[in-house]
From TrEMBL:
Keywords: ATP-binding, Kinase, Nucleotide-binding, Transferase. GO terms for molecular function: protein serine/threonine kinase activity. It is an enzyme of class 2 (transferase). Its EC number is 2.7.11.1. Pfam families: Pkinase. InterPro entries: Kinase-like_dom_sf, Prot_kinase_dom, Protein_kinase_ATP_BS. This is Serine/threonine-protein kinase. It comes from Roseiconus lacunae. Residues 1-24 are annotated as: Disordered. ATP binds at K56. Residues 27-319 form the Protein kinase domain.
Amino acid sequence: MQNEPTIILSGTDPDLPRKLPSGLGRYKGRRQIGRGGNGVLEGAFDPVTGRTVAIKMLPFDIHAVPNERRRLLREARVTAQLQHPNTVPVYEIGNDLVHGIYFTMKLISGENLFEILKRIATGDEATEKAYPAVRRVSALGGACQALAYAHARGVIHRDVKPENIWVGNFDEVYLLDWGTAKVWGSMDDQTVVRYDATALKKAEEEQQLQTLTGGGQRPGTPLYMSPEQIQGTRTIDERSDIFNAGVCLYELLAIREPFRGANIDQTFRNIIHAEVPPPSEKAPERNIPKLADEVVMRALKKRPAERYQTMRELIDAILDIVQLLDQD
């Protein structure tokens, strides 16, 4: 969790630095604040604007790999063009002589929804009180607003999950990680992506992601894939994001994952074939309203034509749930 940066007098000094190095040399006090298999996140101070920023770059061992450079540049440009209150502002895209492609963005505070859900699942009463169901569902509604904006501009996120939904210290909500986004008119439209269960299993083991209850491993992205993502059809559109958001809504309400299997293969079979019980049956102790069940189960329909057809429709349904939960 990042603390809110404090505005200091030196950051408002009217004079620009006399010497401004190029690339990452511009930023002072760089420190690593996060790391994944395909990205490193640093915090740093920008003496030109006088603000603290986040810098995303590739790990050094892959920073010169063409496909990885292309992926990071794509993420930076998609994020930069999606200027919405629920997306993170991008400040600069650059190419450092040593570290390669990087981009800087707003350094956000708070934490992601998965960390919040994990504590609630282990019985943390303080977290439950701070993040009741109405606040959790409202956060998803904010992320869906970003998705509706992206869909209107021809972008499908394809990786909507609690880890990518960030809740700020002042109730800001951000949808992160547009690195796997599909842009209409790109090569993705002509390419069928088929998911290799063996490769996903290897990635799962490397990431060591935990389940909500702390036992075993969490397959991460596979838990939220739509049937059409798994089957590699050519019809990946905004209704796939609607399915992903529906899985998130189920989890936010029930504090349980609807499709988890003993392994990734079984998880995929559950997503494609299994009819899961509504969240109120999965977690009867949580008093989930019938309306929420109806919204979740429609979003999770196997056939895209039977789901909500636009993100705006799902947002309206989520707002109805929020209004109902707010009355309790």
